[in-house]
Amino acid sequence: MKRPYQITASILFILSALITYESLQLKYYTPLGPGPGFFPFYLSLCLAVLALVMFYQATFKKSDSRPEDFIESRLGYLRALAICVAWVWAAGMLERLGYRLTMLVFFPFLLLTLGRVKWYLIVLITLLGSIVTFYVFSIQLSVPLPVGPFDGIFEPIDDLLY
Amino acid sequence: MEAFQSLMDGFAICFQWQYLLFTILGCLVGTIIGVLPGVGPAAGTAMLLPLTFGMSPTASIIMLSAIYYGAMYGGTITSVLLNVPGEAASAITCLDGHAMAKKGRAGSALAIAAIGSFIGGTVATFGLVLLALPLTRFALKFGPPEFFSLMFVGLSLAVALASKSMVRALIAAVIGLLLAMIGIDPVMGVPRFTFGEKALLDGIGIVPIAMGLFGIGELLLTAEGAKPSVINTRLRDMWPSWQEFKTSFWPIIRGTGIGFFMGLIPGVGVLVPTFISYAVEKKISKTPEKFGTGMIEGVAAPETANNAYCNAAMIPLFTLGIPGSAVIAIIMGAFMMNGLIPGPFLFKEHPDIAWAVIASFYVGNLILLIMNLPMIPLWVSFLRIPIPILYTLILGFCVIGSYSAEHSVFEVGLTLVFGLLGYAFKKLDIPLAPIILTVILGPLMERALRQSLEMSRGDFTIFFTRPISAVLLGLAVVFVITSLMKMTAHVKEDQEV
Question: Shortest CB distance from B428 goes to which of A8, A73, A111?
Answer without folding.
Answer: A8
